[in-house]
Amino acid sequence: MQLLDGKACAAAIKKEVAVESARLAIGRKPVLALVRVGEDPASKVYVAAKAKACEECGIESRNTSLPEDTSEARVLDVLRAFNDDPDVDGILLQLPLPRHIDSDRAIASISPEKDVDGFRPESLGRLAAGTPRFVPCTPLGIRELLIRNGIATAGAHAVVLGRSVIVGKPMALLLGLKGPGGDATVTTVHSRSRNIEDHTRRADILIAAMGVPKFVKKDMVKDGAVVIDVGINRVDDPSSQKGYALVGDVDFDAVAPRTSFITPVPGGVGPMTVAMLMSNTLAAFRMRTGK
Ligand code: NAP
């Protein structure tokens, strides 16, 4: 069993982005707008991590934090202002939004050229059509982790647990694309799937993105499989100072010995997501400036 070190891989990618943005940033740096609404503690942590990564990569971040009771119209105004600002290359709207704001409408209001999270329907449509522009950062990071660790996907049976627009669906589409990191035979599993373990046991590459703590057990995984754990779940842990622990969707201790490669939680997929946001922002800057 080998651990897939997302932290190290993400550091290498951020270094590459930093070199490239320093080379290209004549006149101005790439700029990423980070928009957060409300007081969700996890969102605060994620946005802070993204701002820090921008600093490491020579990308300027413009942070806007709006209070919980901000109206949807006001959020749309803020997004519109970033859309209209010629010096802003990418816009990240941190999810989840407070319940009174329609997330789909807010995401759809981001300009397609600045949709560095790749959540707009057009971005997903382009990926489905085989002509991707911005691919959601988590699946893109997983593909990069597989490629950089020499894990062949061509002809492999990949099983993706989950079909969200953020992770599962674009992951399945990416793995099915022609080319490096693709050409897999893909099965998608969701909450209406029957006999899930029959699918997971046939997986050469198993990607768990359900948000169910330790769902994947030892007897659900084939010997020698590659297991990617996307889940980040808070579970009560009175022994920790914070009162909770972060666990993935995979029962790591039991499953790891069966695998050829496995990602840890934390330190696996999470850092790759942030690194790919930097990479997508640089791509947006290049597209917009023609550099
Ligand atoms: P989501 O929108 O809630 O989607 C979960 C998916 O899993 C859905 O498609 C759902 O099926 C399926 N599912 C849930 N319970 C299931 C069950 N018991 N059996 C079969 N399928 C089931 O979640 P998400 O946004 O994709 O996130 C998934 C996990 O990844 C979460 O823990 C999240 O925190 C984590 N995450 C991590 C990163 C990172 O950077 N590491 C990034 C994003 C998300 P239906 O479609 O039928 O409802």
Structure in words:
- With 291 residues, the chain is an alpha/beta fold.
- The protein has 10 helices and 11 strands.
- The strands form 3 sheets. The protein has a 6-stranded parallel beta sheet. A 3-stranded parallel beta sheet has the order 3-2-4, with helices on both faces.
- Strand 5 (157-161), helix 7 (168-176) and strand 6 (185-189) form a beta-alpha-beta unit.
- Helix 2 crosses helix 10 (269-289), helix 6 crosses helix 7 and helix 6 crosses helix 10.
- The longest helix is centred in the last third of the chain and has 21 residues, at 269-289.
- The protein starts with a strand and ends with a helix.
- It binds NADP nicotinamide-adenine-dinucleotide phosphate.
- The site of NADP nicotinamide-adenine-dinucleotide phosphate has 25 residues, from helix 10.
Produce a short descriptive summary.
The protein is α/β, with parallel strands linked by helices and 291 residues long. The chain is built from ten helices and eleven strands.
Beta-strand content bin: 15-25%
Low-confidence stretches: none
Q: What order do the SSEs take from the amino end to the carboxyl end, as H and E?
A: EHEHEHEHHHEHEHEEEEHEH
Shape: globular
Number of helices: 10
Quote the distance from N terminus to C terminus: 42 Å
The small molecules bound here are:
NADP nicotinamide-adenine-dinucleotide phosphate
Arithmetic mean of pLDDT: 97
Helix content: 25-40%
